[in-house]
Every structure is written in structure tokens, then in C-alpha cells.
Design goal:
By secondary structure, the chain is of the alpha+beta class. It is 26% helix and 8% strand. The protein has helices spanning 13-25, 39-46, 93-111, 148-151, 164-172, 185-189, 216-220, and strands spanning 51-53, 80-82, 195-197, 204-206, 227-229, 237-239. The protein binds flavin-adenine dinucleotide (FAD) and iron/sulfur cluster (2 copies).
Length: 240
């Protein structure tokens, strides 16, 4: 639908082609002009581990589909998952892409005999909890906008977004509130040597035999990703 439904001024074809090519380079084999009528039979013939059905609805957002919860039928068949327009809910590229991401978790869990549960969101970290003493001032940038007379002449995006360099700059301004980004400040600040560094991407281990609960690590943490908690019958300790 992104090629035949969404107009090219909203979805430029060179970008669409590049994204499909990128998916192919990641190892996905794409079989075109291959109609599937019997999902379970195709599944058995292909000896697939799991199936994700994303056959779309070929309808605009405003069109109501009778029995539109039909996609739920697929829940009843083990190993067959569905997402995108074929399932109930908002029909847009953003939602369809999100369903794909969710399907990855669900299918991965299913293949490992587990059920995926969306992890709970972290508590909101208010500005006062951040320690920004070593952050430099970095103002936000205004996104370029088309002038009113230019907007009348074509379909170009009004709000033009950022190029690669500006996007990088904006991303680098993120405080990562509530999330550890492995800056090692807590590790450097712990007077007891209680914090050990794990491999990149795996955070830190706190040795509760050494931790005195002094809170120095929390005072160092720019993003408030570490907190003190009390354990039953145990001394207070830090927790990342
Ligand atoms: C005219 C129009 C304009 C739109 N404009 C926008 C927009 O501006 N922005 C936006 O976010 N969304 C827009 N949408 C909605 C958006 O296109 C869809 O939400 C999105 O493409 C859904 O993705 P999907 O993968 O679920 O399904 P689709 O993109 O529809 O893909 C389904 C695929 O499955 C294939 N298929 C179907 N049946 C079978 C079968 N039996 N065997 C094998 N293959 C099969 C189809 O050929 C198709 O390639 C628009 C939709 C329409 C109709
Ligand atoms: S609270 Fe524990 S881990 Fe944090 S700085 Fe103090 S001793 Fe180290
Ligand atoms: S918990 Fe905070 S101070 Fe420690 S590494 Fe993560 S972000 Fe840095």
C-alpha cells in the first residue's frame, strides 16, 4: 500500500526502494507475486517456525470493516501472528510498523516457549532529579519551514525536519532521563569500589557487601538512573 496507495509526494519512491533494499540486505528473502490462500497449509509446506500475516486491508482509514476483529481468529492458531491493517485498530504506516516490532517480541518469546509481556514503563524522572553539572549548554534548533507562498505551489513537506548532522546534534542533547547510558560517573564516584562495570550494553553490578548506601553514585548520575532502596532485613543499597 505504501507504493500503490500513498502518493509519492508523501512517500518518495527512491526512499521506499532504498528501505526495501535495506531489508533485503539484512537477510530477508522477498518473494513477489506469490499469493497465499491457505496459511496453515503454506506453513506446513514451508516448514516455517512461525508465520506473521500482514496482508493489509486495502482500504482507507475511514472505511469500517464488518467483523473487523477477524484478525483475532489468528490468535487461536499457535505460531500464526497477525499485524498491520488486517488487525483491528488504527490503519497507518506508523501502527503497522509498530505491530511488526511487537510481533518480533511475541514470536521470539513463542519460539522460546514463553509469552511476551510489554515491560512496565519506568517512573517519570522530573527535571529536579537530574544532575546536569557537567552538561554544556546546547540550545535546541528550529526546524526549517516552507514559506507560505511555497506551500501553495506544491506538496513539499511544510515542516522540513533535520538533516543528518542536525539530527545527531539534537540526539546528543538528550538527557536520557531515567535511563543508564553507561557514562561510568557512578562507578568513578563510589568511594567503596562497590560498583563493577559489566560488558558494554550490560550496565553495572553493585556489590551489596561493599555498598554502604552513602548515595554518592546517585549524586553523580546525570539521568537519575540509579536509586537507593531498602531490602527486608538488609542494609540500604544502590540499585541501577
Ligand atoms: C489510499 C491510501 C492512502 C494512505 N495514505 C497513508 C498515509 O499518508 N500515511 C499513512 O501512515 N498511512 C496511509 N495509508 C494506510 C497505510 O497504507 C496502511 O496502514 C499500511 O500500508 C498498512 O501496512 P500493512 O503491511 O498492514 O498492509 P499493506 O501495506 O496493505 O501490505 C499488505 C501486502 O500484503 C499483500 N497481500 C494481500 N493479500 C495477500 C495474499 N493472499 N497473499 C500474498 N500477499 C497478499 C498485498 O499485496 C500487500 O503487498 C493509506 C492507505 C490508503 C489505502
Ligand atoms: S550508595 Fe553504594 S554504590 Fe552508591 S556510591 Fe555509595 S557505596 Fe557506592
Ligand atoms: S547509573 Fe547513571 S551515573 Fe551510573 S553509568 Fe548509568 S547513567 Fe552514568
Amino acid at each position: 500500500m505504501m507504493r500503490y496507495g500513498i502518493p509519492s509526494y508523501r512517500r518518495p519512491r527512491p526512499i521506499l526502494n532504498a528501505e526495501i533494499a535495506c531489508i533485503g540486505r539484512m537477510g530477508v528473502r522477498i518473494s513477489l507475486n506469490r499469493r497465499v490462500d491457505q496459511v496453515e497449509i503454506e506453513n506446513q509446506l514451508g516448514d516455517f517456525d512461525a508465520v506473521f500475516v500482514a496482508i493489509g486491508a486495502h482500504l482507507g482509514e475511514q472505511v469500517d470493516i464488518p467483523k473487523r476483529d477477524a484478525g483475532k481468529v489468528l490468535d487461536a492458531v499457535p505460531g500464526i501472528f497477525a499485524g498491520g491493517d488486517v488487525t483491528p485498530g488504527t490503519r497507518s504506516v506508523t501502527y503497522a510498523t509498530g505491530h511488526g516490532g511487537k510481533a518480533v517480541h511475541c514470536i521470539h518469546a513463542w519460539l522460546n516457549q514463553r509469552t511476551w509481556q510489554k515491560p512496565p514503563s519506568s517512573a517519570l524522572v522530573p527535571y529536579e532529579k537530574l544532575h546536569l553539572w557537567y552538561h554544556t549548554e546546547a540550545n535546541s534548533q528550529a526546524q526549517p519551514m516552507l514559506a507560505a507562498e511555497q506551500r501553495q505551489r506544491g506538496f513539499d513537506e511544510v515542516l522540513q525536519g533535520f538533516d543528518k548532522d542536525r539530527t545527531r546534534y539534537e540526539a546528543s542533547r538528550c538527557y536520557c532521563c531515567g535511563n543508564c547510558f553507561e557514562c561510568d560517573a557512578c562507578y568513578g564516584g563510589c568511594p567503596e569500589g562497590a560498583i563493577g562495570i559489566l560488558d558494554t550494553g550490560h550496565g553495572y553490578r553493585i556489590d551489596y557487601e561493599l555498598c554502604t548506601g552513602c548515595g554518592a553514585c546517585i549524586a553523580q548520575c546525570p539521568s537519575h538512573a540509579i536509586s537507593l532502596f531498602s531490602r527486608p532485613n538488609q542494609p540500604t543499597g544502590a540499585n541501577t
